[in-house]
Amino acid sequence: MLFNNSQYLGIRFTFFLILSIIVMVMDHRNHQFGTIRGMLSDAMAPLQYTVNWPMALTQRLKDNVHSKHELVTENTHLKMQNLLLKAKVQNILALQKENTSLRALLKSSSQILDHVAVAQLLAINMDAYIAQAILDKGKDDKVYVGQPVLGANGVMGQVIQVGRWTSRLMLITDTRSAVPVVNDRTGMRAIAVGTGAFRPLSLINVPDTADIAVGDRVSTSGLGLLYPVGYPVGIVTSIRKKPGEQFSDVVVSPTAHLYRDTQVLLYWHTKAGMVDEAASQLKQMQQEDKNMNQQIIERVRDGG
């Protein structure tokens, strides 16, 4: 029985094999089964889409995740580049500003024949009555108490305290500051005193009959041999004469950028420079005495 079933199965297999070969040959030569194959393909399409959908969805999700990761990475990289470029731009602007400041200091130092050195302002104390700053130069740089400090546009002040690596600068607006000045237009001498941080200077003991006008420029007179002669101090901005008093209130705006400049000049007197300044002051005083004596003689003659 088993032998008969095996023989039957062998005959069927041979039959279907021969039939398949005949169908393939006919389809290859005559394409007689194209329509049937198309109908079968259409019938199997939903099944194929159903089977392929999970794989397609998974691939799409992978692509989206990968694309998002790339975008996030690229965005982070671009932000870092943008930050670095901004930092470089700010650094370039700072260097340009520093270069401009150094050029201005170099130009102003050409007015001085004595020795100078550039110093950096580290901090500024802007109390109501105390106007001081810290410099990055000290005893190791031969800085001394009383040393004048100049800016590109005018006198900044003088050193009042010296450490090994830093020193303290008293600005000319400090209430303890006093700078001997001279009116560039008339030659009248006076003392410019500070009135506090962010406040102007005041000329003291200016007679109400003095020849002084708004817009006059005052410079260092050299008296006291502290500041170099002829360095800008300020410009007269207002004059108020008090009735019944012999002195006027004269307000002077400093020409130095006291609260904007970050670099200043430390000034050293040379012996030759001090001798020249002393000789110049002596000559000026002699001329003033001569003029005064001449005026007295003329008054006596007129009175006689």
Please give the count of helices. Answer: 3
Tell me the strand order in the biggest sheet.
1-2-5-4-3-12
End-to-end Cα distance, whole Å, is: 176 Å
Named CATH architecture of the domain at 115-288 = Beta Barrel
Structural classification: alpha+beta
Q: What's the CATH superfamily of the domain at 115-288, by name?
A: Rod shape-determining protein MreC, domain 1
Helical fraction: 40-55%
CATH class of the domain at 115-288: Mainly Beta
CATH fold descriptor of the domain at 115-288: Thrombin, subunit H
Counting DSSP E segments of at least 2 residues, the number of strands comes to 12
Radius of gyration equals 47 Å
**What fraction of residues sit in β-strands?**
25-35%
The parts where pLDDT drops under 50 for at least 5 residues are 271-275
Largest sheet: 6 strands, antiparallel, barrel
Shape: rod-shaped
Give the SSE string.
HHEEEEEEEEEEEEH
Describe the fold and architecture:
The protein is of the alpha+beta class and 304 residues long. It has a domain at 115-288: Beta Barrel (Thrombin, subunit H), CATH 2.40.10. It contains three helices and twelve strands. The protein has helices at residues 2-30, 34-109, 271-303; strands at residues 115-126, 131-135, 148-150, 155-162, 167-171, 178-183, 189-194, 201-207, 217-220, 232-241, 247-254, 263-268. A six-stranded antiparallel barrel has the order 1-2-5-4-3-12. Strand 4 and strand 5 form a beta hairpin. Mean pLDDT is 78; it is low at 271-275.
